[in-house]
Specification:
Mean pLDDT of chain A: 92
Structural class of chain B: mainly alpha
Number of domains of chain A: 2
Bound molecules: zinc ion
Oligomer: heterodimer
Number of helices of chain B: 7
CATH class of the largest domain in chain A: Alpha Beta
Shape of chain B: extended
Radius of gyration of chain B: 24 Å
CATH topology of the largest domain in chain A: Creatine Kinase, Chain A, domain 2
Helix content of chain B: 40-55%
Number of strands of chain B: 2
Radius of gyration of chain A: 21 Å
Distance between the termini of chain A: 32 Å
Helix content of chain A: 40-55%
Order of helices and strands of chain B: EEHHHHHHH
Order of helices and strands of chain A: EHEHHEEEHEEEHHEEHHHHH
Shape of chain A: globular
Structural class of chain A: alpha+beta
Low-confidence stretches of chain A: none
Strand order of the largest sheet of chain B: 1-2
CATH superfamily of the largest domain in chain A: Glutamine synthetase/guanido kinase, catalytic domain
Largest sheet of chain A: 8 strands, antiparallel
Chain lengths: 351, 177
């Protein structure tokens, strides 16, 4: 199957460490080529030059030559959005797609965005909590590129980036956490405040309401300069460990005090996903979150978390539209979404 | 990324709102998130498109202040990319690697404010001269030496001290040549 039609990506596997709470870990390194204008003011010639240069390096480096180069210009809007839904490119790259490219490893765990805010954004994305391995992977790709590219670098400030908030290591580590029990025990606000106090950044997705849709929160480092890569990642992992511990505690309290209530929520969610005829993406995200909680509290068995991760892509507006390959009305999309979810779950019988 | 509101502090609260499959994003610093009642993601009143628009309009009507020394000559331009400090103040982005040299005086305090430091201690590209690597190694060995002394591992400490002396010689020789 063509890479742009796939749903799956490596981070969706359910065999990573701590996947009961941690969906995925991502490392991103920002790099620029010396003596060329940064992307936001670069003219067509400069952007093309970056693309050509990087392409040459990939093709001529034995350990990178297997990576697939995808020109974003050659994709439809739905195909670009689907890459966003699979977390393989940033929303920014999908929006400014002209003279942009993404270079993907076969397992989709390593990628390089070309002409994003910086000339190069080297990414590695793994299931569960594994910053160390993700850092080793991105670092290796960086070493291979650096052997042939002259990066914009200063001994004092480090890697020079378009935005000064990324200068220094150019390293952004992010971890995607699923926190349904912290939410249901009203501890999310306090936890997020504490995370901000530690100098970390948080990202949440919202619908009409005031609570994060799907209970997914992403936490990442804000500081990129004056700390080593190891210190930055240790700080992030330490915070993540605390949150994982708190979430597990909250889950066992919920199960102990309200077992029937939790079971009811989980089975209702599963029943709706399996039978609904109209599904908005907001409702789908909520139901998927509840089923995910059911899987990791052993309430339902026979369905794996990687199916749940795939569902998160299947329900995305990009995928639903791509299947039909045309712009759908929101009603049409909700009907099609319900159909796709039923299809995905049809072969599964829970225990 | 700098805060959408004040363009002064780094954005640490990122909010994506999806209504009817339409996505909107806003990036705020802790102060602005708090001022807008957005802290802790307990939005009351809930975040609206109106807020986003108001933010955008404010951004255009008020000159956002960056905490950098603005006593520069307007003609100060980066010789590689042609970017001015004025451009940087407007976009929050530099134009090329050379800009960091050209606007160093103004950038240093900003970097310290954003990161608490303006000195890189992380990875070095291999092509950066050997001395930078030696200096980095020297720093690491000095840290290890302190640890060894603190834990009374004197044999290890002596070993480390010899290594550091040798490194210092190499660095001096490298700098002279
Ligand atoms: Zn602000
Ligand atoms: Zn410049």
């Amino acid at each position: 199957m063509d890479i742009k039609d796939e749903i799956f990506a490596g981070w969706m596997r359910d065999d990573g460490p701590e996947t009961d709470v941690v969906v995925s870990s991502r490392i991103r390194l920002a790099r620029n080529i010396d003596n060329l204008a940064f992307t936001h003011i670069a003219g067509h010639d400069d952007l093309d030059k970056v693309l050509r240069t990087v392409e040459e390096v990939i093709k001529s480096t034995r350990d990178l030559a297997d990576m697939k180069i995808i020109d974003l210009d050659s994709l439809s809007v739905f195909e670009r959005e689907l890459l966003v839904a699979r977390h393989l490119i940033s929303p920014e790259l999908a929006q400014n797609w002209e003279r942009r490219a993404v270079i993907l490893s076969e397992d989709n765990e390593s990628s390089i965005m070309v002409n994003e805010e910086d000339h190069l954004r080297i990414q590695s994305l793994l299931p569960g909590s594994q910053f160390q391995k993700a850092w080793e992977m991105a670092n290796r790709v960086d070493d291979l590129l650096e052997a042939k590219l002259n990066y914009a670098f200063s001994e004092d400030i480090g890697y020079l980036t378009a935005c000064p908030t990324n200068a220094g290591t150019g390293l952004r580590g992010s971890i995607m956490l699923h926190l349904p029990a912290l939410k249901r025990t009203n501890q999310i606000g306090a936890m997020l405040n504490a995370v901000l106090k530690l100098g970390l950044a948080i990202r949440g997705t919202y619908g009409e309401g005031t609570e994060a849709t799907g209970d997914m929160y992403q936490i990442s480092n804000q500081i990129t300069l004056g700390q080593s890569e190891e210190e930055i990642l240790e700080n992030l992992s330490g915070t993540a460990r605390q949150i994982i511990y708190q979430e597990r505690n909250a889950r066992s309290v919920l199960l102990k005090e309200y077992r029937s209530k939790v079971e009811d929520v989980v089975y209702r969610a599963y029943g709706l996903l399996k039978n609904a005829r109209i599904l908005s993406s907001e409702e789908a995200l909520k139901l998927i979150s509840e089923v995910r909680m059911g899987i990791y509290t052993d309430i339902i068995k026979g369905i794996s978390a990687s199916v749940i991760n795939e569902l998160m892509v299947i329900i995305s507006p990009a995928y639903v539209s791509k299947v039909e390959d045309r712009e759908l009305s929101s009603y049409e999309r909700d009907v099609k979404r319900a159909e796709l979810v039923r299809e995905k779950l049809s072969s599964i019988s829970i225990l | 990324m700098l805060c959408d509101e004040c363009k002064e502090r780094p954005a640490t609260v990122h909010v994506t709102q999806i209504i009817n499959d339409q996505k909107s994003e806003v990036h705020l610093c802790e102060v602005c998130a708090k001022a807008k009642g957005h802290l802790g993601f307990a939005f009351k009143p809930s975040f609206s498109v109106q807020d986003l628009l108001a933010g955008l309009i404010q951004q255009f009507s008020e000159e956002p202040e960056l905490p950098i020394d603005m006593s520069f000559r307007v003609s100060d331009k980066c010789e590689v990319c042609g970017m001015t400090l004025e451009d940087f103040r407007r976009t929050g982005r530099l134009g090329c690697g050379r800009c960091y040299d050209e606007f160093r005086e103004q950038l240093e305090p900003l970097l310290r404010r954003l990161h608490g430091s303006s000195k890189h201690i992380g990875k070095l590209p291999r092509r950066v001269g050997g001395i930078a690597h030696l200096k980095r190694l020297e720093g690491q060995l000095k840290k290890e030496l302190q640890k060894a002394i603190a834990s009374e591992k004197y044999e290890k400490a002596a070993e480390l001290r010899d290594k550091i002396h040798q490194l210092e010689k190499d660095i001096k020789r490298g700098e002279v040549s």
